[in-house]
Amino acid sequence: MIFKGFQFGMLLQFAIGPVCIFIFQAASSRGFLITESGVFGVALIDALYILASIIGIGGLIEKNDTVKIGLKVFGAFVLILFGLSNILNIIGINFLPSLHLQSVHNTTGMFSRAALLTLSNPLTIVFWAGAFSSKIAQESYRQKDLFLFGFGAVMATLFFLSLVSFAGSITKIFLPLQFIEFLNGVVGIALIYFGIRTATKKGVS
Fold first, then answer.
1. DSSP labels, 101-145
2. Shortest CA distance to 193 belongs to which of 26, 11, 17?
């Protein structure tokens, strides 16, 4: 069951999103070791979402349109804030400097930023609720099986984002500072795009 969850989780990881982009940028700016704490922050939030889905919270959110809209607004707000902070910092404007990677000097700071960014897509819990409901209906999974399946999915998050972090840390070694600053701008634009998409998309992701 763990391996099945890992396979499923890896399929999801290839749909590149704002968290993946953030981890790559963080590693290119702050290095692998500090960024790896951010990877654990992402995995923790994923694990909490999966746990909430297994015990049925996701289904309740899916049925409450007011809660879903509120979560979408929250997610879009966080993503756009991160994006604006990235872009404005390049031109010397310290817009919410606490969000910018240059203010991260330890693993605790990276952990909290990555966790916050992962929380910016709280409707992920609705997706997991649907995935687990499907597994129960199609394959008659018991709750114990779902926990093992979810654990495998979290392991996929850790594995994939650790690879992304390693790749980002290599760019820090081989690429000039000007390119890293350009990358920061691209990431900022991407985060704003994801924020707008989160606010306007009708789906759960």
1. GGG--SHHHHHHHHHHHHHT-TTHHHHHHHHHHHHHHHH---HHH
2. 17
Report the half-sphere exposure of 3 (CA within 13 A, side-chain side).
0
Confidence of residue 95 (pLDDT cuts 50, 70, 90): low
Using CA atoms, how far apart are residues 114 and 25, in angstroms rounded to an integer?
11
DSSP state of 40: H
Rounded-to-integer distance, Cα 109 and Cα 6, Å: 28
Task: Compute the mean pLDDT over every residue in the chain, rounded to the nearest whole number.
Answer: 78
Please give the share of the chain, as a percent, with pLDDT higher than 70: 80
Q: Read off the pLDDT band of 39 (50, 70, 90).
A: very high
- Separation CA 107–CA 115 (nearest Å): 12
CA–CA gap between residue 184 and residue 192 (Å, rounded): 12
The contacts of residue 82 (CB under 8 Å, 6+ apart) are: 18, 22, 99, 117, 120, 188, 191
Tokens 């590149």 -> residue: 16
